[in-house]
Amino acid sequence: MKIKEGFTLHELGDECIVIHDGTTNVNFDKLLSLNPTAAFLWKSVRRDELDPDRLASLLTETYEVSREQALQDVERFVRMLVEAGVAE
Asked: Of 17, 39, 72, 80, which alpha carbon lies 20 to 30 A from 31's?
């Protein structure tokens, strides 16, 4: 699973939002806002596979979080991207 082409992360002050570049027909009911940890994961994978083990390792290496908690957070992150139509 990967982040779809055309979606980019923009930082506006303290806010991180995902915006589509408009090259395809995408319907956003609202902007996708990411917290700092989700933005860190987004920046870390960019166009790579959304590999849960790799993402969990990034979280445990960067933050004081258990492997189990990191995996749960990664699952929520990936689910959010899929539900928003940003990942395929």
From this structure: 72
Domain extent listing, the chain: 7-83
Query: Within 13 A of 52's CA, how many CA atoms are on the CB side?
Result: 13
CA distance 2 to 60: 21
Distance set, CA 69 to CA 1, 10, 57, 75, 81 (Å):
21, 27, 11, 10, 19
- Using DSSP's 3-state secondary structure scheme, residue 16 falls into strand
Mean pLDDT on 12-18: 89
pTM reported for the whole predicted model: 0.84
- Cα separation, 14 vs 26, whole angstroms: 26
How many angstroms separate the CA atoms of 80 and 24, rounded?
A: 21
